[in-house]
Batch of 2 targets.
Target 1
Amino acid sequence: MRETFTWGHSALTAAFATGPDGVLRLMRLGPPDEAAPPDEATPPDDAAPLPVVEVLALGYGSEWSGQRGIETALGARLRYRGHRTGTDRSGTNRSGTNRAETGERGWHRLTLDLHDPGSGLTAEVRLSSPDGLPVLRSEVRLTNEGTDPLVVQAVPGLVLGGLPSPDALDVHWAHNEWLAECRWAAVPLRERVVDMSRNAHGRDSRAALVLGGVGSWPTDGHLPMGALTERATGRAWLWQIESPVGWRWEAGERAHGTYVALGGPTDAEHQWRERLEPGTSFTTVPAALALAGRGGFDAAMAHLTAYRRAVRRPHPDHTALPVVFNDYMNTLMGDPTTERLLPLIDAAARAGAEYFCIDAGWYDDTGAWWDGVGAWQPSTRRFPGGLQVVLDRIRSLGMVPGLWLEPEVVGVRSPVAAELPDDAFFQRDGVRLTEDGRHHLDLRHPAARRHLDTAIDRIVGDWGVGYLKLDYNISIAPGTDWDPEHGHAAPGAGLLAHARAYQRWLAAVLDRHPALVIENCASGGMRMDGSSLALTQLQSTSDQQDPLRYPPIAAAAPTAVPPEQGAVWAYPQPGFTDDEIRFTLTGALLGRVHLSGHLDRMTPAQLDLVRDALAAYRQVRPDLPSAVPFWPLGLPGWEDAWVALGLRTGGGRSGRTYVALWRRGDAAPERTVPLPHLAGGALRIDHLHPAAASGATWSPERAELTVALPHAPAALLLRLTAVDEDD
């Protein structure tokens, strides 16, 4: 018997139907007015949408051999058994622990129950969506209800078919290398998915556009994101895979339409396999999909930004947004001492910093801190009077002290490397792994957790440190094949299990120390994934040291992280010109200011420039927690001479709009910036930074802002507010 049902809310509706084979399919997904009941238009069998679950397992394989992640034998065998719905005001953070939401949005939930009697495999597809947002979050829980073990090789968290033809779509993805993060590209999907004449062959192509990440840096190489936009209508489908390790997405052609499959690690790409003994379960990493009925990429990104706020762990830092000074970048560079720090602390306080973080090296007595990490005790050589003297100085000036840690690693020269058992570290074939002079802790092991809990509770509880920059500077691939509880496992499965244990440990740290602020860093932006963003308060966006190279990173960072979490370096130097000081400061003012630089060597006039920028930031930051990004000049290219980032609150002409512009190198001194959402009336233009700047004019008829920056490098931050003509 064919069954149909719909689920959703005011902004999103999903329509489901079973076919004659009993397989459940997602027939339509979109706004309610676009989601007709599935029996109004049943597609022919060869064009039917995909099953809601695809599972690749040893002994079962695919129905159509190839490297695509769809059309699996088990996916076609899972039969619909029922579903349940619910609404609540709770979410799940990436540690897997329930917590109360902020109360701003409720959640709509749907659980689909599927079963294959032959193998005994059961799949629970867990769908959720924040009320009023066209965003769908999906994860799959597999349980072996059979009598024999089942080895799973791949299972996407979300599969969606029935999208428009590749001929109508553009595909978007983001390169994300060290020092060159968030570099988006877009091409027609048909350029990557070739038309091989399905009508002539009776089958779809075996090919698809596939992107992925490997190892323990989930955003090394690419962001775990992508998008499809329909050129004719402005419809958009934007996704993120919330994996703390490897991931994979693919977009391909099926039955003259387009499908996407979004998931975590797999056997083929990541050496991930999960052996399900009878009665055991595994849950995939989640995937989230934001939809826009018009407005393209920017509109979908606004929805995804709101989703990221709804799903993350609540914390006061998300609205307080204090200015953080960090002594590392282009300043002490991992060589702090009492003598060097005290003048910097004084200068940072005079400039207006509210937190002061001592970065790497504070624990090292040898001058070679890289491979000696792990004990997390202060150096006596660097701080002859004790580290507490420096921490007290920070507090005495009204700032909160912070420290850098790299918790998951233990240097080969550290005494901790000999004190902890081998089972507390990553291993392969019985050999403890070493990467770049460090061993890697396995947070599934109680000894590893005790070691870190002791260090954190000493630093935060006893020393009074209120900010931790948690770095992660090695990447392990494919992982560890040693399971502290069950013996050997596939390396990719060991890596994912450790990453989940690390996030549970981190959530427990925040439970014990709720006022603690944690910055997530991995050589800059190599761990800029959704699972980390949902747990930590700040996200490092880059290690880029060249101020002329940072603007495209700063402008595109809100694609990966909400503005109030994205830490952007601002490192003015006494050797800079005034324009160069303003330029390097502007980049951080629409995110989280990560101040650095030798402020202690600046003239009073130069320090005034820093104070002016932070005064502008204090005008902006009340709007950051609710603002959504847009890119009036398009997402930036790495070499673009003009770069722009916009943030907006409210809808249409209501609310406030902020626009940051950078001019780099040899470019025309004037640029026109289209702002169609402000069309139809006059604007008040406030030059926030530099405050004395001029040269921005508004054309209400063309909805264009014209900005002049006569010299390069130069930057400008504007606030635009709609006004009545009579004002």
Note: The domain at 4-311 is CATH 2.70.98.60 (Beta-galactosidase; Chain A, domain 5).
Target 2
Amino acid sequence: MFFNTKPVSMLLQLLFLSLNLAAFTTGDDQFVYSSFSGANLVVDGATTVTSNGLLELTNGTDQLKGHAFYPTPLRFTRLANGTVQSFSTSFVFAILSVYTDLSANGMAFVVAPSRNFSAALPGQFLGLTDIQNNGNISNHFFAVELDTIQNIEFNDINANHAGANVNGLKSVQSYYAGYYGDEDGNFRNLSLISREAMQVWIDYDDKVAGITVTMAPLKVARPAKPLFTTIYNLTTVVTDVAYIGFSSATGTINVRHYVLGWSFSMNGPAPAIDITSLPKLPSMGPKPRSKVLDIVLPITTAAFVLTVGTVVVLLIRRHLRYVELREDWEVEFGPHRFSYKDLFYATDGFKDKNLLGKGGFGRVYKGILRVSKLEVAVKRVSHDSKQGMKEFIAEIVSIGRIRHSNLARVLGYCRRRGELFLVYEYMPNGSVDKYLYGKEDKPVLNWANRWRIIKGIASSLLYLHEEWEKVIIHRDIKPSNVLLDSDMNGRLGDFGLARLYDHDTDPQTTHVVGTIGYLAPELGHTSKATPLTDVFAFGMFLLEITCGQRPITESTQDSQCMLVDWVLEHWNRGSLLDTADSKLQGNFNVDEACLALKLGLLCSHPFSNARPNMRQVIQYLDGVMKLPEMAPTDLRFHMMAIMQNEGFDEYITGSTASIGTTSVLSGGR
């Protein structure tokens, strides 16, 4: 008997193909992916599936978001009583940053009523929500974040943690990334940005309304003790039918987020992921060098000597060109030090075409680091004194650990003889003053942007004054030091830089650092910066950004007008809102503008004990606390006269003056 072998062959081919499918599905509510090749996922934004089966959520581009969802919505609630039933998921992920100690930002597993996250923001919002809707109960999403940035506004515990989130980015429970070893029960740290694959298990138990999160390195079995457990009834959060998937976002650093495998189950443990079948991660290190055969060429002695001599001369010249100043005490700060050669190449030799701005604190250049392709701003400061340099560098490195969404990050430093270089994250939209005064053809800032900037800078000052591990006084708050990121969020820059000039000053010299118009009157005779002198400058900043006018303007040939006095005069005449920036053409929130003007006057009160602290300022701006009852007569003063009485006579007659032997620097980028 003979059989037709073609159907059998086709059947075997189909069987072989089915065994190599990315996903093995046992039902609508259970599946496992050990690779994503051919997977039927719904993706958007930066997300894609690579040729070797990796789910690439972000591709390293700055300020982008990406999502990937299982295509079929799942029923999460029981029809009988409407409660959310138990579910379990596991996934293998990896975060690849160009740095092993720096990243921005993280990723999250999410259960949501919709796959549409088009209105969500990247950066610290992880592509899950935006500023206005963060924490809104109508979001109805549950997420477990793997976060690599410490965002103070979300009460993050550190820059390397896992957290369970409901409807927003403030975690209901979180813990440092790591796991408990089964053999000894000790906690072991894991770095989310180690470029190594790790596995996460997430379980929801409807019997106790408990959320459990566990993680471990890829080749370590699931630990018996979870990372954390919290009680939260998801019945009030998750909708009857919801989608499951991943959300991820980048900030200002080249980062890629990957999912290598994923499984899910309703009312049972998630199926095991076959880790032997997972796709390989790409390498983030330098490409391996090509192997070439050694070729020995006969050369004459004279030619050899000439070549060696030429190389030596070139090496000496090159060494002198890139020579740096290093001292023994800098060893401990090594990871935060950039080479001058890297900064030289990044800025194309500090050419004027890359100049972003200049002022009393030096010149600022845009640069692109060769290896990481990270955009940076490099501040070049002349500084000859050795006095206090170690203390200053220690402060800069300490400040570099600060994570706040409204502060421009200090990435590191470099030193040459007579020069100091500070490296900041680059802010693509420049400084606020360029928008207020029409520099570089910048568009007019609308009121919504101004209000967000005001609140953001207030938040950053509260953090510097009260929430960081030590008090940091900024001492030069003004629009040119407020930078705008790609989302037009205000970032306060240059914080702590004035300390450089403290260290470079004779202790016997009366010394004031700052910019005329923003200096509190008491500095004229005390020279001592305090949080309340920052509050004064913030008050002037409030008035300036609301009115669109500088703190001091020429009124006639021989006289000057203080913005604070001009606003008070209008308030006294009942025309306070007439001081709002005319470029807004009346398009502003009257209540917010009125609050900004009155709060600006209160913060810039000539008597320091009458000013609020920054925590009170935040409460006023958020409407948690009402401004004290005030009338223009309560605040009536002539700031020009007060400043002259306090020792600022020379300030009034010139843009740059000196007190004692130390120049007052008019700052700026």
Note: The CA atoms of residues 41 and 71 lie 6 Å apart.
